[in-house]
Amino acid sequence: MGLTIDDIKQGVSQIRNPVIARVFRELDLIEQWGSGIPGIFRQVKVANLPEPTIEELVGRVRFTVPLPEILPLTREQSRKGNGKDLSARSAVESGLESGLESLAARILSSLAESALSKAELAKALGHSSISSKLNQRVNQLLDLDFIERTIPQKPNSRLQKYRLTTRGRRMRNQSL
After folding, report:
1. Residue 148, domain CATH
2. Does residue 17 belong to any structural domain of this protein?
3. Residue 25 has pLDDT above 90, yes or no
4. Which of 12, 116, 156, 169 shows its CA 20 to 30 Å from the CA of 32?
5. Under 8 Å between Cβ of 61 and 55
6. In Å, how far are 30, 101, 130 from 97, measured between CA atoms?
7. Quick check: 154 pLDDT over 90?
8. Last residue of some domain: 33, 64, 95?
9. Distances (CA, A) of 106 to 4, 37, 62, 92, 113
10. Domain match, 151 and 101 both
11. Is residue 75 part of a domain?
């Protein structure tokens, strides 16, 4: 069953990748299935902007929101940034985060090259210390089998590091 433009406007949702959808739901990165597009239409109406257009392309949908003025992009917001910027955007993105970079995605990207401790992860993410949010995301990624401990028999070891699992690498590579 294919969705029509009216279905999309009404918030009907068709999940194309259930694994990614489940990860986003479990990490609280989405509020409710199908709430995004109707919310955009409401906000556009409130801002008194022209109604967005939705076009069906070959295997894709193009969603265009006309803006009253052209907004300049920073290098980080542009897909033309260097490869490092793009790898930080990868992980769980796969078109679902729409430019938002989640902590979970940044953790997966940081672990792409080598195993890191939580302190090393915090530093790689630009944090001064290990936050409760970082602890929470690491535990969620462990539960989802995207990362694993290097010393599984001693989870609280001071030498503990974390690395991507095969599943975590697949998820990260799918979104590149």
Report:
1. 1.10.10.10
2. yes
3. no
4. 169
5. yes
6. 9, 7, 24
7. yes
8. 64
9. 34, 26, 27, 9, 13
10. yes
11. no
The string of DSSP letters for 65-130 reads ---SSPPPPPTTTSTTS-HHHHHHH-TT-TTSSTT---HHHHHHHHTSSS-B-HHHHHHHTT-SS-
Q: What are phi and psi of 124, to 5 degrees?
A: -60, -30
Average pLDDT, the chain: 76
Is 147 among the domain residues?
A: yes
Q: Is the pLDDT reported for residue 147 higher than 50? A: yes
Q: Look at residue 73 and tell me if it is in a domain.
A: no
Provide the domain limits for residue 29: 5-64
Condensed to tens digits (0 to 9), the pLDDT of residues 36-88 reads 778 888 888 888 888 888 887 777 778 787 777 776 766 665 554 444 433 33
Number of independent structural domains in the chain: 2
User: From CA 162, how far away is CA 140, in angstroms rounded?
Assistant: 13
